[in-house]
Design a protein that fits this description.
The protein contains four helices and no strands. With 100 residues, the protein is mostly helical.
């Protein structure tokens, strides 16, 4: 609900700054932003950690998406190899349900 006083105040405000690339709301224009810094160089340790995390995520996906007892058994073995204890436990419970 608007009253006449509210509308009047809105028109008395100075217009917002707009540039060629702004969002029309007075925000900062894209061409005013500083350049993006270069990505950090990946060390061998960081690369190994990232690859290990990717492998863990793939294993979790295999445990989640396994549709047969054979797939689940393979996924559980991979999880054990990676030391994912909680995932192994969940996988074994799912395997028991599949075999029941």
């Amino acid at each position: 609900r608007h009253d006449r006083h509210d509308r009047h105040d809105r028109h008395d405000r100075p217009p917002l700054r707009q540039s060629e690339f702004s969002n029309g709301r007075g925000g900062r224009a894209w061409n005013d932003l500083p350049p993006r810094p270069p990505p950090p160089e990946e060390t061998a340790e960081a690369k190994a950690r990232r690859e290990h995390e990717d492998l863990e995520e793939q294993t979790r996906d295999r445990l989640r998406n396994a549709t047969s007892a054979e797939e689940m058994t393979q996924a559980i073995a991979k999880a054990q190899e990676l030391g994912l204890k909680a995932e192994v436990s969940v996988g074994e419970r799912k395997l028991q349900k599949m075999q029941a």
